[in-house]
Design a protein that fits this description.
The chain is mainly alpha-helical. Among the domains are: 3-256, Serine Threonine Protein Phosphatase 5, Tetratricopeptide repeat (Alpha Horseshoe), CATH 1.25.40.390; 293-369, no CATH class. It has helices spanning 3-17, 33-37, 42-56, 59-71, 85-91, 105-120, 131-156, 180-197, 205-210, 214-227, 231-242, 266-272, 293-299, 313-317, 327-332, 376-390, 394-410, 429-444, 450-461, 465-471, 479-486, 498-503; strands at residues 76-78, 159-160, 177-178, 279-283, 309-311, 333-335, 342-344, 349-354, 360-364, 371-375. It is globular and about 65 Å long.
């Protein structure tokens, strides 16, 4: 892709996302704003950092965050709304290189904005723009770039690793793929640097939850270490967050738990009111700036309760995932009066109330939902998973079980502690692994995590047998064909989009999607 295209796109996003800054942004006829006239002071750097976040609010970016993380999993089937043919094909297990869901350009656009900040920000001469302020801005874009690459490497495996901005027409834009290991190592290095520079908190709660902080970086590191099977480091970074008493705010009582209790209605606080105590990093959508259109489309809204996606019937209408006492089933999924519709309420809903007969009333959001990338229970369950995989002694299993019980009991308020999971029932590594995986499914359902959890499991197994067993049940047709495809581990990754292959001869297609003659 030519440099001038990036320049134009860069300026357009600045204009659309930061219209309040037009007093200092002047576009010259020659189109060299970014290169020569722009990077003059701290406000310029702040504006471009804001552009990186603003680009993550884009519908196409959010579409892939949800689709890549959920559509192939056992959580999701098609709803009553109309989804695109590309999304429907993915739901049906039919994925080819021309499927537009396989496009990665939104992620690379954000990566390019981050690269631009890293290149130009150190050149800014402004007495108010101190070294610590510079490093704080660099930490934000290092982490955002790492997050984009972490999505890409989990979705495609080997991807081009680009760390220089597109600022010259003489640059070589036909970059070959780097290996998964090389990309992960770069992600880790960038996040470790970002951790040392990142802010602890910002002046407002919205910024603390909506911008990169040390704990947001630590959450990403824990996730990356779990993916890399570095369980000791995963636990180390989980503990840095779990033990941090100012995760949400300065707590007057240092012994106060950051885990919201059931009596306080966790669903409403986390997904209804936004930026809860448990939140670590979430995208900030708003009616006045940018609505979360993909949540409206996929999960539903006040004006249209029927989203384009639906929960699978085995999750919604049986007790195989959620026991009868678990309030998360009703919080996350709405059964519309036995019409066979299992609408997703998480993110779409504000709160749920229940009468004495156990019937629920649902109130949908009056404003657009934020999108949560990391929250406390996700981190706790990462630690539990790492403990199970270490399996050094009985204490690892006991500690993992304690974490699972703490989260499970919160969502099963009619149960007493004596009814919690017992170690005697989960005496093997696989049994404990399945329990933690199930609790992650219950707790993080529809949050864009499930497919990556299943893929992480399959990678450890060295085969897709357990993944296929979990996913296959949602298909009513072509089970044999789908099972045959998914037996090949390469099929668990997406193909490189065909237009990218044609534009860049140095790219190599995922082996599963290479056709005869290529």
């Amino acid at each position: 892709m030519k440099a001038h295209i990036f320049k134009i796109a860069f300026i357009l996003i600045l204009l659309s996302g930061l219209s309040a800054c037009t007093d200092w942004l002047t576009i010259k006829p020659d189109g060299k704003v970014v290169l020569t006239d722009y990077w003059k002071n701290e406000a310029d750097v702040e504006a471009v950092v804001a552009t990186c976040y603003r680009a993550m609010l884009d519908d196409e970016f959010m579409k892939r965050v949800i689709v890549w993380g959920e559509l192939r999993s056992d959580n999701i089937i098609g709803g009553n709304g109309t989804i695109s043919d590309a999304e429907n094909k993915m739901l049906q297990g039919s994925i080819i290189p021309t499927n537009e869901v396989c496009k990665w350009n939104n992620f690379y656009s954000i990566i390019n904005y981050c690269n631009t900040v890293l290149y130009y920000a150190p050149k800014v001469v402004d007495p108010n723009f101190t070294e610590s302020k510079l490093h704080a801005k660099e930490a934000e874009v290092l982490a955002l770039r790492a997050m984009c690459y972490f999505y890409l490497v989990r979705v495609y495996r080997d991807v081009p690793l680009i760390t220089e901005p597109s600022i010259s027409d003489v640059q070589d834009y036909k970059v070959p793929q780097s290996t998964e290991t090389q990309v992960l190592d770069k992600i880790e290095a960038d996040l470790l640097q970002a951790e040392s520079w990142a802010m602890l908190a910002y002046s407002t709660m919205q910024y603390t939850k909506g911008r990169i902080t040390k704990n947001a970086v630590r959450a990403m590191l824990a996730d990356v270490y779990l993916w890399k099977n570095n369980y000791l480091k995963c636990i180390e970074y989980c503990d840095k967050i779990i033990d941090d008493k100012i995760l949400a705010d300065k707590l007057e009582n240092s012994n106060k738990s950051l885990l919201i209790q059931n009596d306080d209605n966790p669903f409403s606080l986390i997904f209804g009111l936004k930026n809860s105590d448990e939140s670590i990093f979430e995208l900030q959508f708003s009616e006045s700036n940018k609505v979360n259109q993909k949540v409206y489309d996929y999960y539903g809204s006040t004006s249209n309760n029927v989203g384009q996606l639906s929960a699978t019937s085995s999750i919604a209408s049986t007790y195989t995932v959620y026991p009868k006492t678990d309030v998360r089933r009703k919080d996350n999924i709405r059964d519309l009066m036995n019409q066979g519709l299992y609408n997703i309420f998480k993110y779409a809903g504000q709160y749920r109330t229940e009468n004495s007969q156990g019937l629920s009333s649902y109130t949908y959001r009056s404003t657009t939902a934020n999108w949560i990338f990391y929250r406390l229970t996700d981190i706790m369950l990462m630690k539990a998973e790492a403990l199970v995989q270490l399996n050094r002694s009985n204490s690892d299993f006991n500690d993992a079980l304690h974490i699972v019980n703490k989260i499970f009991i919160r969502s099963n308020p009619t149960m007493i502690l004596a009814d919690s999971f017992k170690i005697d029932s989960y005496s093997t590594k696989q049994a404990m692994e399945e329990l933690v995986l199930l609790e992650r499914q219950r707790e993080l359902m529809f949050e864009g995590k499930r497919w990556f959890d299943l893929l992480r499991m399959a990678r450890r197994d060295g085969n897709s047998n357990r993944l296929v067993a979990k996913v296959l049940g949602k298909y009513t047709d072509n089970q044999t064909t789908i099972k045959s495809k998914m037996t090949d581990m390469n099929s668990l990754y997406l193909p490189i989009y065909q237009d990218e292959i044609e534009a860049n001869p140095n790219l190599v297609q995922n082996p599963f999607y290479i056709t005869e003659g290529e």
